[in-house]
Amino acid sequence: NQKIDGLNHDDNYQCYPSPDAYSYCTMINLLAQTRNESYIEKAEEMLRNIHDNVDGKDVVMDDDVAPYNAILAAWAGLSTWEGAIRAESLLVQMETQQQRIKNTKK
Would you say which domain of life the source belongs to (predicted)? Predict the structure, then answer.
């Protein structure tokens, strides 16, 4: 049982790929589609992880509008005041993140 570079390994030496921004985005979309408040919160947590280091690698995506849009739609779809407030807060975060990305490209 040899370890393969570039893959994660569990205690049983099973190999699986390291998570990247695309796998996070897929999970965010799935969680947001549930329209369940606790799952939407989990999707927001995963979105924050995209902008942090994962396994020591920077996973910031240049164009990460899709996961923001999925979560915005999920909060708006709840049709509650809380959902509206959370959607507005996330929109501000999205705008801030997009500005940060533009500034790093200069």
Answer: Eukaryota
